[in-house]
Prior knowledge:
Helix content is 72%, strand content 0%. 23% of the residues are buried. The chain starts with a helix and ends with a helix. The protein contains seven helices and no strands. The chain is mainly α.
Amino acid sequence: MSFDDIFDASYDRVLNAEPDHVDFFEAFYQRFLGSSPQVSVLFRHTDMARQRSMLKKSFYSLIAFYASGAVDNVLRKIAYLHSERELNIQPYLYDLWLESLISTVRDYDPAFDDEVELAWRLVLSPGITYMKFGYNHF
Length: 138
Ligand code: HEM
């Protein structure tokens, strides 16, 4: 199985898992907000239900970037919004984002193992690199 397929199968499993009636993206944001005061302060005025649904939609563009190597308009707009000129999301915060995500996958995917972890890291890497690079390139 390719890392693409391993990722897809794991993504399906985490979307269908709801331990304690908390869905995957909600659990992710709980962890991400708890990962650092720098993160929680940025979301202090945010409607988190809307935020979860926006992230879920934008996830598609992140994943598509790994497969196609082409940036779509959704990803370009998100990168601009997060850049120094707009939300000013410093690049190191994406590492907290990724580690919070992996730790959520670990708890939500019953088949989690090293291959699954590596698949998530590989699939998300190009999108995260693009977002970090965009910090001061708009
Ligand atoms: C690849 C990683 C990320 C993706 C795909 C992503 C995606 C998004 C999306 C889709 C939105 C909503 C945009 C809109 O309202 O039109 C958003 C908003 C936001 N993101 Fe991210 N994000 C990422 C990483 C981060 C990181 C690392 C931070 C740092 C704390 C962050 C902080 C924010 C903030 C503060 C908002 C605005 C919330 C508000 O409207 O109050 N994001 N993000």
